[in-house]
Amino acid sequence: MADVTSSEAALRRFLHGLPGVDQVGAEARAAGLATRSIKTTAKAFAIDLAISMIDLTTLEGQDTRGKVRALCAKAQHPDPSDPSVPQVAAICVYPDLVATAKEALGSSGIKVASVATAFPAGRTSLDVKQADTRDAVAAGADEVDMVIDRGAFLSGRYGQVFDEIVTVKEACGQAHLKVILETGELATFDNVRRASWLAMLAGADFIKTSTGKVAPAATLPVTLVMLEAVRDFREATGRQVGVKPAGGIRTTKDAVRYLVLVNETAGEDWLSPDWFRIGASSLLNDLLMQRQKMATGRYAGPDYFTLD
């Protein structure tokens, strides 16, 4: 018990010893970067890069196998009339639909990600979280998106949150673990930084802003704080961790702003689907519309691309 208490105290001291976040400065820097303009050739590259980083997501109670199969078809061929459009990075679904997605994607190379651990609340026993994760991985999930218990974190029970992440990471086996912080409920940028470091110390392969079920979801300033955290973590430990903003990223302009933020904060090493993802459902169509506009000089009608 003494060792556990000592470890908890050490974790608390470390997390509360992290430099505080200048909220005004972070918001100002994010706003400044959002005004950056890019050349046409760079925009074309950015659109394709953003497409390749998308975790195409459906997380609704009305999801069906048919809807998931249709989404997988779109993931592989976002615009069937243009084979030069890249595939997306992953399909993200509930655990019971993982097998359907895995079969539909076949040998495409697109990952299957699954939310687990009592998504989106994260309020259940550790045994259930482990079982949920194992079920998703057994069904074929390449990645697991777990959600932390924000109540435990905000109560200062950092050791509990740390241990849950460690345990879920073990249950993932070879699958990558994305840890969802639900930043909209963490209240302060200091908490976002602490939660980011806690997740990374516990073994997260990615840290993710949001479930998409709580407002505000992803924002540029919060993502800036998380990018600073992964940058500093790699400098301190030598291990690189990815970042995934999710929820509310709907337009090409939004996506490009996030790519600029990544480049200017963490650096070019993170400008890859291996290290940066965008959780989205409606973003892909806007990227495709902008891509077609650049190629043909005109926009397609709103019903040209399939609705997700």
Notes on the protein architecture:
It catalyses: 2-deoxy-D-ribose 5-phosphate = D-glyceraldehyde 3-phosphate + acetaldehyde. It comes from Phytoactinopolyspora mesophila. This protein is α/β, with parallel strands linked by helices. The chain has one domain: Aldolase class I (TIM Barrel). Helix content is 49%, strand content 10%. The protein has twelve helices and eight strands. It has helices spanning 2-16, 23-34, 40-52, 65-76, 98-105, 126-138, 150-154, 158-172, 189-201, 220-237, 252-265, 283-296; strands at 54-57, 90-93, 111-115, 143-147, 176-180, 206-208, 242-244, 278-280. An eight-stranded parallel sheet has the order 7-6-5-4-3-2-1-8. Helix 10 links the parallel strand 6 and strand 7 (242-244). Helix 4 packs parallel to helix 5. The longest helix is centred in the C-terminal third of the chain and has 18 residues, at 220-237. The radius of gyration is 19 Å and the shape is globular. The termini are far apart. The relative contact order is 0.14. The mean pLDDT is 93.
Write the layout of secondary structure elements.
Layout: H1 2-16, H2 23-34, H3 40-52, E1 54-57, H4 65-76, E2 90-93, H5 98-105, E3 111-115, H6 126-138, E4 143-147, H7 150-154, H8 158-172, E5 176-180, H9 189-201, E6 206-208, H10 220-237, E7 242-244, H11 252-265, E8 278-280, H12 283-296
Parallel strand pairs: 1-2, 1-8, 2-3, 3-4, 4-5, 5-6, 6-7
Helix pairs in contact: 2-10, 3-11, 3-12, 4-5, 6-8, 9-10, 10-11
Quick recap of the structure?
The chain has helices at residues 2-16, 23-34, 40-52, 65-76, 98-105, 126-138, 150-154, 158-172, 189-201, 220-237, 252-265, 283-296, and strands at residues 54-57, 90-93, 111-115, 143-147, 176-180, 206-208, 242-244, 278-280.
